[in-house]
Queue: 4 jobs
Job 1
Amino acid sequence: MRNLLSMEHLSNEEVMQIIERAAQFEDGEMTRLEKSYNVANLFFEPSTRTKTSFEMAERKVGCTVIPFDADFSSALKGETMYDTVKTLEMIGMDAVVIRAKEDEYYNELLEGINVAVINAGDGAGQHPSQSLLDLYTIHKEFSSFEGLKVTIVGDISHSRVAKSNATALKRLGVNVRFLCPPEWAGDFEAYHSWDGLIEDSDVIMLLRIQHERHVINKSFSKESYHEQYGLTFELEAKMKKNAIIMHPAPVNRDVEIVSELVECERSRIFDQVRNGVFVRMAILETLLEGRSI
Ligand code: CP
C-alpha cells in the first residue's frame, strides 16, 4: 500500500491487517518504524478528531510532525494541490495527510508525487481512515463481519463516511441497509422509515447532517428530521440486546440522536474516537514501512 485514498482501493486482507495491527497497538505494542519520518497534516476543511487523532498517532509511532496551517498557506494565493504537496516533498516530507472540499482532489497527486498521501476526507467522496476505525470498532465488538446487519442512517448522499463504509462492509459480508429522507439517498436504495430495521440491526450507524454541503433548504426542520429519522429512547429500547450505536461525529445532539443516548451503555461514539488513534498508527506504519522497503 503506497497511499490511502479510498476504501475502493483496499482489499479485505489489507483491511484485516490494519485491524490486527491496531489491536496490537491498543494492547500496548510499540511501533516497528526505524526512523523518524516527517509528516504534515493539510486540513483545508475543519476537523477536530481526524486532525488531532492523526497528530497523536504520528507522534506515537515516532514521526516528526511538521506544522502546516491551511489558513495561512500559499493555497490561499491560488497554489494548486499538486504544487503544495510537491513543495512539501522537496522540503523533506515523507507523508502528507490531506482533507479537502473537492471530491477526489487526490487524482492530481497520482503522477509525480513521491510522498505517501493519506486522504483524511475528500468532499462528499471518501473518508478511509474513519471507515477503518469504524470497522475496527465493529470487529472489536463482534469479532467478525460476516452476516452482521448494519443500518446507516441519515445524510447518505453527502456523507463520505457512508460511502467508505458501504463499500468496505458489503465486501466483508455485512448486510448494509440505508435509512434516510428520499432526497438524501443519492445512488443508494434506501428505506424511509425505521419500520423493521431497528429490531434486527447489530449496528445503528448514525450520520451527521452535513449542512455545509447542502443547497439552502428553507423547509428543513431539525425537529421533523429528529421525529422521523433521529434515534430516540423509544427506538433504542427496541434494539437487540448486544446491538451498538455508532456515529463518526461531530454529533448534532437531539437531531441525529437524543443527547442523553450519546454516552449510553450501547453507544460506541467516544470509543470510536479512541480507537481512531490505534488505527491511524497502523495506517502510518503500514504506509511508511511499505515505502521504506
Ligand atoms: N469524524 C470526523 O471526521 O470528525 P472531524 O471532522 O472532527 O475530523
Job 2
Amino acid sequence: MLNKKSVDDIQAAGKRVLVRCDFNVPLKDGKITDENRLVAALPTIKKLIADGAKVILCSHLGKPKGEPKPELSLAPVAARLTELLGQEVKFAADAEVVGANAKAAVEAMKNGEEFSKDLASLCDIFVNDAFGTAHRAHCSNVGVSSLVDTAVVGYLMQKEIDFLGNAVENPERPFVAILGGAKVADKLSVINNLLEKCDTLIIGGGMAYTFLKAKGYEVGESLVDDEKIDYCKEMMEKAEKLGKKLLLPVDSTIAAAFPSPIDAEIEVESVPSNAIPADKMGLDIGPKTAELFASEVKSAKTVVWNGPMGVFENPILAKGTIAVAKSLAETDATTIIGGGDSAAAVNTLGFGDKMSHISTGGGASLEFLEGKELPGVAAANDK
Ligand code: AMP
C-alpha cells in the first residue's frame, strides 16, 4: 500500500491551502447535471475548513484548449459548492488561471484561526449550546473547541442529541417518520436514512407528487421534480425490500393555480391521488389522507415529523398540516418535530407544549436525520 501523507497529517490552521479538485462536471445550459464529483470532494474541503485553513480550490472543466470559454466557467460549481457547504465559495473570474482576481481573493481571505483564537482567549472552558449551527463548522463552535482544553455541550444541545439521536438510533417502535415540504431533492438523504430506521415512512406535501408521478399517476400541474422520479422509484422498491410501510397521499386537495398572494381565497376540491386533472395542482393532502396519516400516528410509539403536508401558509390549504399536528398532539408517543416550518406550524397552532421535543435547528435536525455527524457536536470532548 502506498504510504502518503494526507490532509490528516498536516497543520492547516491559518494556512493557505490549495486543493486541486476534479470539478469537471457535466453542464447543461449552465446547470450541473451530475454533482457526484462535487459531493465526493466535500470531505477534504470540510476537513480543511474545520481545521481553520484558508481553502483555495482549483479545477479544470471540459477542454478549453488554452482559451477562456465562458461556457466552461467554474462559476456554477462555486455556486453549488456554496449550497453544499453552507458557506460562501467565492469564484475568482480571471482570463488566466492565476490572475489578479484570484490573487486578490486569496489576499482577502479572513484568518479563521485568529478569530477562533480571539474567542478562545476569553475562556477557560467552552460550552456549545447552539444546536441550530451544529451542522456547520465555524470558528465559534469547531474553531474555538479545538483551541481550549475543555469543550462541552450545553443542556439544549444535549436534549437535541438525546431526542433526535434516540429516535433515529434507538426508537421505541413502531417508529413513524413523516416528511413533507416542497421538494424531494432537499430531502434525498433524509428519506433514504429514515427508511432504514423507521417502521413507517409517511410522505406528504409537495414532495409527494414526484412519488405519485413515479407510480405512474397523472399529477397535473403539481410540483414535480422530474429528475428525481427514478430516485423515488428506488425508494419505493427499497421500502418493499426492507418490509417498511411507505405511505403516500391517497387523495389531494387541488386547485387551478398556486394561491397568489399565498394566503388568497382559493377554490379547492379533493380528489383521489390517481384522479388529479391535468390542469390542476395538488396543494394539500386530502381528508382521507389526513385520516390515514393520523391513524398511523395513533399506533406509533415514536414519531418524527419534518415538513408541512401542504401550502399551510394558506388557511384553506393548512388542513392536512393541522390534522397531522393534532394527531401528534393527541398521542402519548414520543413526538419530535424537526425545526423549520413544521416547528413553526406546531407552535402557531398552539400544540407546542404537547410535543415531546421541538428541535431548534432546521438544517441541523435534517442533517441529524440524514445520519450525518454534526461538526459542532463532534468538536466537543468525549466523556
Ligand atoms: P420546505 O422548505 O421544503 O420544508 O417546504 C415548505 C414549503 O413547502 C412551504 O412553504 C409550503 O407552502 C410548501 N408546500 C407544501 N406542500 C406543497 C405543495 N403541494 N405544492 C407546493 N408547495 C408546497
Job 3
Amino acid sequence: MSTYDLTRLLPADHFGQALRHDVQQGLTAYPKWLPPKWFYDARGSELFEEITRLPEYYPTRAEREILTARSREIAAITRARTLVELGSGSSEKTRLLLDALSELGTLAEYVPVDVSESALESAAESLTAQYPKLAVRAVVSDFTHGLGLSDGAGGPRLVAFLGGTLGNLLPDERAGFLASLRAGLEPGDAVLLGTDLVKEAGVLVAAYDDAAGVTAAFNKNVLTVLNRELGADFDPDQFDHVALWDAKREWIEMRLRSRRAQTVKIRELGLPVHFDEGEELRTEISAKFSHTRIADELAAAGMRLAEWWTDEAGRFGLSLAVP
Ligand code: AVJ
C-alpha cells in the first residue's frame, strides 16, 4: 500500500508562539485585528469547505470551471514533474491538475503545503489511494514563512496558489510573498495563481455574508480557537459577523462587532481586552484583482504573466506566471 510523507517545516511550538504573538499584537492595537490564518483549525477548515458549496460563494466554482477547461493546456505548457500547492486545504480542485499532468506522464511528485495538519492528512490519505504512483510529500507550514520549495523537489515545478488566498495578504505582505516565491523558482518552473476579480459590490458582499450564516460561523470560529488555545473567554454570541466592501482598496473586509461593552480575558497572556459597544475586530481582508494589477504585481516581483484565463462570466482569474 502506498503511503505519504508529512513534514513539519516549522519548530514544534511555532504555531503556539505565532498565535500568542499575533493575539498580543492584534488585540492591543487600535483598531483591533487578527490574521486570517487562525480560522483554520479542524472545525474552521470544515466550515470553509461548507462555504465553498454555498450558492453565494462563487469563487470556488468559478476557479474549478477554469481549471476544468484549462488543465490540459496548463500541463502541456508546464510539463511539470513536481506540483507544489500552497494553502492546499482539501486539494479538491487540484485533482484536475493531477489528472492532466498524470495523463501527460510528466508528474512524479505532489507537495501540498498547508497550516492545517488535519486537512493535509485527510487530503494526502485520499490522494495516495487515488494516485498510487504519485509521491505525496505533505508539508505543514505557513506559506508566508516556508514555501516547501527548498528541499530538492525535482523540476520542472509548477507552484499552484489557488482559491484567491493571495488576496488575504495586505499589499506589502503580498509584494514580499511574491518576491520570495520568485526567489525560489528556477528556469522552467511556473506559478499558477488563482485570484478573485473586482466586481459589483452586492455580489462580493453576499459571498462573504451568506443567508445560511455559514460565513458568520466561520468568522466567529476564530474566537473559539482563542478560547481553546489561549484560555480566552470569548462568548461568540456577543459578536456580530460583518462583511464590507472597501471600494478604494478593492478588498472585502470581515470583522466581528462587539454587541455590547465587554472585557474578555486571554488567560494565557494575562491580557484583559476591552471592547466598546459596536467596536470591531478585523479578522480578514480578501483583496479582489484585475488583469492589469496581477500583471503589474507579478512584474514587480520579477515574474512575467504568460497566460491569463477567466471563467465565462469573468468573475475569477487564473494566471500562469514564469520567472
Ligand atoms: C480561501 C482564503 C481565499 O478570502 O475568499 C471565505 C476565505 N473567507 N469566506 C476568501 C474566506 C470568508 C477565502 N480564501
Job 4
Amino acid sequence: MQFETEKVAPQSEDKALKPKHASKREEAYTLKVISGPASRELAEAVSAQTGFQNVPVVSKIFPDGESYVRLDGSVQGEDVAIVQTTCPPMQDGRLFQLAFLADSARRAGAKKVAAVVPYLAYARQDKTFLTGEGISVETIARMLKAAGIDQFVTVNIHSEPTLGQFPFPAKTLSAIPLIAEYFVKKGFKGALALSPDKGAMYIAKQAQEVLDGDVGHLSKTRDRYTGQTVQTAEGLNVKGQTVIILDDIISTGGTIVGAAKILREQGAKHVFCGCVHGLLIGDAEKRILDAGVEEIVGTDSVPGSVSKVSLAPLISQELKAQK
Ligand code: R5P
C-alpha cells in the first residue's frame, strides 16, 4: 500500500500564521483555517491571504496504516474551515483524516465546521452506471456529515448536480479562470479553448472568457466496462492555431493524449493542457508530453509536478465572503 507519513511539527498557537495586513474587521472575524495534512501549504496560504488564523494539525500514520490527527490550537467557540484535499495517494486515508478533524473540531467546541476539499475523491461515481453499483460520492458526504461537517466547498467537482444530494449546504468553485490567466500571462491570449468532450464545454467557455479567443470541443464516448474511449473532431479547424485543452481531471491521461494526437494531426501549431485536478496516474505526464502537449498546467488541489496554479486566492475569496 502507498501510505505516506505526513507530519507537521507541533507548533504553539502563538507561532501559528498571523495576519500580516489584516484590517480591524478581519481580525474581529473568528473563522479559523485548519491545515489538513494533505493541504498544509494551501491552508497556510489561505490564512496568509485572508488574515484568518491558522490551526496546525499534528498527524501521523500508525505502523498498521491507520491515520492519527490532532488539532494543535484552540477552536473553542469558533467557526472553522478544514482545508484538506482527498487526491491520491491514500485518498481513503485523507477522507478519514478529514472526518477525524471534523470530529476533533466538534469535540473541541467549534461552532460551525466547514470542509474545504479542493479535490473530492469518488466524485465521478455520482450515479449507478451499472446495476449493483452504489453512489460512492453520496456515501462519502453522509460520512462527513456524521463526523460533524455542516458546510462543504469543493473546486470543479465533476458534476455540480451531485452537490444537491449532499446532506449539508455545498458548493463548487471554478479554478478555470485562474488557469486561463496563467496562459494569458505566458502570452497566449487569443488561444483556442478546447474541451476534450462535450460535457466539459462549460469549462472551455469559462477559459474562453479570459483567453478571449475561440472555443470548441471534441466528442468522446467511453465504454463503461472497459473504460476505453473514442474521440472524434467534427467541424473543428485548428490548423496553425494555439490550442489549450481544458478538463476538470486528468487521471490516466488517455483523454488528453487522444485529444492532443487529433490536434497535432490536424495541424495545430501549439498544444497546451490546463486541468484543475492533475492526478496524472502512472506515466500519464510523460504520455501527454510525448503526444505533443507542450505544457500541462494544474492546480494545488493535487500537489505535484504540474500544480502551477494555487487555489489560495479562490478559496480565500470564498471564505471571506462567508463573513
Ligand atoms: C471525464 O469525463 C473527466 O472529465 C476527464 O476527462 C477524465 O476523468 C479524464 O480521465 P483520463 O485522464 O483517464 O482520460
